[in-house]
Amino acid sequence: MTDRTPVLVDCDTGVDDAMALLYLLHHDAVEVVGITSVFGNNTAAKCAHNSLRVLELMGRTDVPVAVGAENPLVGEVTYLATHVHGDDGLGDSGLPLEVSTPLSDLTAVDLIDELSQRYRGRLRLLAVGPLTNIAHALEAIPDLTERVVDIVIMGGAADVAGNQSAAAEANIIHDPEAARAVLGASWPTTLVPLDVTMTEIITEEHRTALAASSAPAAQFVAAVSDFYFGGYGFDSFGVRCSPCHDAVAAGVLTGDVVPSVFPRIAVEVDCTDGPSRGATICDTRGRYRAFPDQDGASCRVALVTDGTFADRLVAMLTSSTAGVIPR
Ligand code: BDR
Ligand code: CA
Question: b/e for 6-37, b at 16 or more Cβ within 10 A?
């Protein structure tokens, strides 16, 4: 057994999910022991395929990838974010799509069950897509909250605007009922919302450095993020760029990103059908008193980070010696 911390990543592999996976796969303190996929940026099936593309790039055929939910807890999926991540979910970059590694025979919930038993008391969860698989797992595995160390979630908007609606962030609005169940469960939870992920930006200069590198992981990120830079990044900031959303959450998990404002506060999810459906209502009233911990709150919310994560990510990927770029 390795000394590295085992991490299960639940994701909808998209562009920034791929950045998160590549960051973790290069990190010497963690071991990605499994990946479960969920609808969101694309179908769960395509997102699982994209996770295999990332793993094969790194020569990692040993990490199980299981397909999860194609629909939210309530109703059916209303949209997939192909306008942000491309029709293939990874920026329609022209890189080969084929993979040779098979998917796991297990469902996402069964893989979470198996890995949370195998790594009982050590496993950490990183959830960077809609929280549907995790909600199903909480239902199916009554002691899941005792088996894992914690869960780190990319999602929500505490004191800033949403990105899928004026009030709601994409991962949460895809399945507010699941988010409510996961954020309401009694386990140590870290929320990494748009408040910080929109301040951690990969610039066009970073992308140029990635593209010029001989490292396969760097070239891959440069290629798959081009579409994202020109679409979502440009629409958000008026310049070509990319918020590092999911990769920042991975950085918070490893401890490379240390939020300077990181209160333990109550978080509610709006599950009504009005204009604020999917909003994360974070109780930030303590801000004028240096954010004392709130009684009974198990969620820490990252509110401020220093904006340097992309420098670290680009340095890590451009100095990588692992992997083979698909041709
Ligand atoms: C989140 O939505 C998805 O499109 C991204 O992968 C990220 O997880 C950002 O709002
Ligand atoms: Ca994601």
Answer: bbbbbbbbbbbbbbbbbbbbbbeebbbbbbbb
Distance CA(211)–CA(216), nearest Å, equals: 9
pLDDT tens track for 235-274:
999 999 999 999 999 999 999 999 999 999 999 999 999 9
128, 153, 195, 252, best to mutate for ligand 1 pocket (most atoms within 8 Å of CB): 128
Q: Is the CB of 17 under 6 A from ligand 1?
A: yes
Q: And the tokens for 222? A: 């440069």
Longest alpha-carbon distance in the chain? 56
CA of 194, closest atom in ligand 1: 10
- pLDDT, tens digit (0-9, with 9 covering 90-100), for 142-162: 999 999 999 999 999 999 999
